[in-house]
Amino acid sequence: MRSYLYRWLLGTSLAAAVLAGTAAAQPPYGKRQPPAYDYDQPRDAPPPPRNEVHENSRAGFFWQAGHWEWKRGKGWDWLPGHWERVRAAQKYRPVRWEKRGAVWVRLDGDYVSVATHPSAAPPALRAEKYDNRPGFVWVKGSWTWKDGEWDWIAGHYERERAKQRWVDARWENRGGRWELIEGRWENDVAVYPTVPPPQLRNDRPARPNPGYVWIQGNWDWKNGTWVWIDGRWEKERAGSRWREPRWDNRGGKWELVAGDWEVIPVSPYPTSAPPPLRVESPVARAGFVFIRGSWEWKNGAWAWVDGRWEKERVGSRWREPRWDNRGGKWELIGGDWEVLPSPYPTSAPPPLRVESPVARAGFVFIRGSWEWRNGAWAWVDGRWEKERAGSRWRDARWDNRGGKWELVAGDWELIPVSPYPTSAPPPPRVESPAARNGFVFIPGNWEWRNGAWAWVDGRWETARAYQAFVEGRWERKGDRWTWTDGRWETCARNPPLSNPPPPPRANITPQAGWIVIPGRWNWVGCKYEWDAGGQEKPRAGQKYVAGNWARGADGWVWTAGAWVNDAPPTGSYYPPPSGGPRNPPPPPQAETYGAKEGFVWARGHYEWRTDKYEWIPGHWERARAKLTWQDARWEKQGDAWVLIPGGWR
Description:
Elements: H1 2-25, E1 61-64, E2 67-71, E3 75-79, E4 82-85, E5 90-93, E6 96-100, E7 103-107, E8 110-113, E9 136-139, E10 142-146, E11 149-153, E12 156-159, E13 165-167, E14 170-174, E15 177-181, E16 184-186, E17 212-215, E18 218-222, E19 225-229, E20 232-235, E21 240-243, E22 246-250, E23 253-257, E24 260-263, E25 288-291, E26 294-298, E27 301-305, E28 308-311, E29 316-319, E30 322-326, E31 329-333, E32 336-339, E33 363-366, E34 369-373, E35 376-380, E36 383-386, E37 391-394, E38 397-401, E39 404-408, E40 411-414, E41 439-442, E42 445-449, E43 452-456, E44 459-462, E45 467-470, E46 473-477, E47 480-484, E48 487-490, E49 515-517, E50 520-524, E51 527-531, E52 534-536, E53 542-545, E54 548-551, E55 556-559, E56 562-565, E57 599-602, E58 605-609, E59 612-616, E60 619-622, E61 629-630, E62 633-637, E63 640-644, E64 647-648
Antiparallel strand pairs: 1-4, 2-3, 5-8, 6-7, 9-12, 10-11, 13-16, 14-15, 17-20, 18-19, 21-24, 22-23, 25-28, 26-27, 29-32, 30-31, 33-36, 34-35, 37-40, 38-39, 41-44, 42-43, 45-48, 46-47, 49-52, 50-51, 53-56, 54-55, 57-60, 58-59, 61-64, 62-63
């Protein structure tokens, strides 16, 4: 027993010692140090704050928003927000991160003291839009002082209170600080206004549909102030009319006489003539008759009834309604269909209307005509129809047969056409086209088509080198006329082989101080054409040498006129080189060229090079306004030949 007790005491003592040693190795709980973690500061900015969903408000509390915390090894960690109790005259400044150097530092949230009352006037009231709501009063928005700054409270509707009116909130300066006078309801509101209502507003919108009456808006007295009641559209009421509301001054107070519908003392007949008929312009519809609009007497007033279309009735016509004054009252003689006594007219149709259509190639204009419809003449406009080979249109006509007029309808009829005309064509039409460089105008001519002469307009064709166009012609052969087509024929090539005609008699009267430039024959389109001369001012130290035609090796060649020095030095215009030409140049070489619009052909010429003549081919020069190209030419001056270069003059 003793041995067992000893062993138990010894084990207990050892356990206590171990526990005591362990306890001695650790400090008390309140002084325990946190583990030695590595709190390195972040180098990147925290993410954007999260959007937290919570109640809009809580009496006596404010929402402290969540924020990001930095945890080494985990990065950014979000701490959610929570509600905190409001502290008097204090405002909470939330946790925030600031960058300092290369790292971001967390600044704890804290409370700061704020002013309980503003020391400056509130901002101007905000503009608010609202509508008049029957039975409600609009409470305007206002500014309130919250957490040391101005906060806007939006306006709202409140239900009306009998014999009370609403007084808006306002701020007053009392001893250097601003205090809010809350909005409130006040009693003792005047039941009747003592001042007249404001001027009526003009707020009438467009009519929604026919058959409505506009109820004018008006002023109403509510809670001690004038309130506008908007107008509206209401359906008409048969036999009634709307009486507008009005305010009457009765013993110094204004009372409302409400608007209402009142019965109209209606006469079954109008006592005055109807207004003039309205102008209606309907578009014609085949097989229909337009029933014109008319005035009706409705609820004691004239009402317009629009016109309408009705189908035609064979053997009948529409008789228009009319109002007749019978013994001081106006009665309507209703419109109706009446039977025509005869389906045929008994009088000649009116003269045909003048129609002036513009010609259309390949079409024939069918002239308009009169038709007999429902006992009256009706005009049918003309129309275009395509030509029909070997046929012609015969116009419609009215014939009097035994006292009644009958229509002989228009129709196409065959033409007894001869393939050849038996009479001479009309004179050619005058055509005056403007000249086009490089083109030839082919004149128009008459053609025989479907037994009649038809004109074909002239046209332009590109000029052809060494060819001329021979115009077509009509020739009588026996008892008929035949046509010979125009054609291109080859003519003498350039230069011409025949000498030019003698120049016509000069018709230029010289003017004092001017020099006459004689005219010349031009070789154009395989024929000579006369180019009239003109006059130019003299040039100091120069004289004009007229151009001339000269026989060359291959034909006649034109040497253009030019201005030259009046006294060339030592007998030569351009001194010839050593051993220069003493003999004339060879005849110009033949050159083949066509027409090129906007360009002029500069002919080739000989030049003296290395004691011999060398041929320089011609080339195209772009045309210049009011200038003429003069070809190069050789002139004998003294005992030598001199080259006068070509150029624009």
